[in-house]
Amino acid sequence: MIYALDVFGTFVFALSGAFRAIKHELDLLGVLVLAVATGVGGGMIRDLLLGTTPPMVFRNESYLAICVAGGLLVFLAAGRLAPLWDWVMVADAVGLGAFAAIGAQKGAAGGLGGFGIVMMAAMTATGGGVVRDILVMEIPAVLRTDFYASAAILGGVCFVAVRAAGAPEQVQLFTCLTVTLVLRLLAMRFGLSLPRIKGLAPRPGEGDAEDGKG
Amino acid sequence: MIYALDVFGTFVFALSGAFRAIKHELDLLGVLVLAVATGVGGGMIRDLLLGTTPPMVFRNESYLAICVAGGLLVFLAAGRLAPLWDWVMVADAVGLGAFAAIGAQKGAAGGLGGFGIVMMAAMTATGGGVVRDILVMEIPAVLRTDFYASAAILGGVCFVAVRAAGAPEQVQLFTCLTVTLVLRLLAMRFGLSLPRIKGLAPRPGEGDAEDGKG
Amino acid sequence: MIYALDVFGTFVFALSGAFRAIKHELDLLGVLVLAVATGVGGGMIRDLLLGTTPPMVFRNESYLAICVAGGLLVFLAAGRLAPLWDWVMVADAVGLGAFAAIGAQKGAAGGLGGFGIVMMAAMTATGGGVVRDILVMEIPAVLRTDFYASAAILGGVCFVAVRAAGAPEQVQLFTCLTVTLVLRLLAMRFGLSLPRIKGLAPRPGEGDAEDGKG
């Protein structure tokens, strides 16, 4: 079940990466690179941090094949997929939840504490998107988009909570996936967002400790 | 002692990341992400390269808690912290020295040679800032700011020198920290900088070997 | 032989990184950082993914010394090197082939499957350039430049093919290097390129699954 969702999430994330490449008018290779980076990037970062080398994606190559298939599909039929966009967004929320649950589980299996488990949930779910955005020089959507990483983080927090309460592993996974998915769908539907501070960069050009000259 | 400085440096670097997020008007999550990435990013990269997985920051979660606290502090009180900016810059120099010393020590403990030890000093001290800058799409300050990474590199060189001379470990650490800190403070006070070559990009659009078409 | 090509490729890639730093008018440190990052970045990423820590470049420090030498050479004599640019481009193609062959070999030695071997070839050959481009905030040339990573990927595919056919290791290496080099030289000479899709970003501002608000 969780494996099926993992494969599903990888495919949907690969679509997201491929669409981004099309938007930037990259060539076929660029489409495939972004599809692979978005589909498996989060899991790769997680596995590196947990010391699982080579990362799982190199041990079960079906993940890479799925990403390439997703990239080719978008490359060949981007125009026909566009009207399905709202469904892709919903599928993406499912992938977000599945990746958060898998990341939290692997973090817990790796002996991490509560903070670490939540970070693994968030990094697995959003790492691929961050790599995708950096490769095309956009500020990572995860830092800007309302309630995307936040949903994965809260899903991870619930994972830690039900785990601390002694729930069996399947309940932990299901809780994380469901909380993340529902929060993300609610955010898409009702436009939830976190607070931000505006107009407070105190002295122009001195907004950070390492760059006194701006 | 060095542990206390490590905690102090993590906190100050987290402040620096959080201020950068405020400058870019990111939401609360973005502030926390940049605080964590800046505070622990350098150590994480160092531990990955040395094969210490999961990285130390996941084994002692107080580092993550410190970063979150620093991020929240900036989020809630950015306006009141701004007048203290000059002090934050001095604190940042202390953090730079502490991180360089710890990085050099871990590199030496990992069996690296002189070049590797110096790189570990520089990466530990500046890696978090590089991650922070890449996430908000600025050219890393470390590549532009006068005598920031240079201070850590020279601190690492002195670490290697006194180590080769047979000094005990605490002297190695103290030398690296002091040299880095003093150089950074002198650079802030007197505007030291390294030479650069201007106006020499030889043929427009052919400035690199991989992009013959610019 | 392959070791000599590896050293040669490292040096040429370091030149490419240093020239990019000059183009951005970075200081001496920036030139050296980009020289090192470009020269050894690809191999470092490969070693991290394969679990070889510390990466090979820290075990044999001559690679770092070569990068520093290349960076200094460009810093001191950028103007005189510029007329040799066409030769640097050819040398870069040799480095691309050597790095692809070494990456494929290490991937195979690490027990990876076909997809993984091809990815290791491509990442080793192009990873340094990607790091270089991200550090100076350009969209990685590898995503834009005609037939650069593609050459390494096809070289990797040929490596996997002759390996599956039972060819000895030296033939595998030679095949990968030659295919990559010849394809890259042909692409430089005749302007080969891959197809791309234009003007299809379907709904403005909705080009990806994670950023519904653009």
UniProtKB/TrEMBL annotation, chains A, B, C:
Its membrane topology: Multi-pass membrane protein
Record domain Glycine transporter: where: 4-77, 90-162
One Gene Ontology term, aspect cellular component: plasma membrane
Transmembrane segments: 30-50, 62-82, 115-135, 147-165, 171-192
The name this protein goes by in its record: Membrane protein
Family that this chain belongs to: Belongs to the UPF0126 family.
Tagged with keyword Iron: no
Subcellular location: Cell membrane
UniProt KW keywords: Cell membrane, Membrane, Transmembrane, Transmembrane helix
Domain of life of the organism encoding this protein: Bacteria
Presence of keyword Nuclease: no
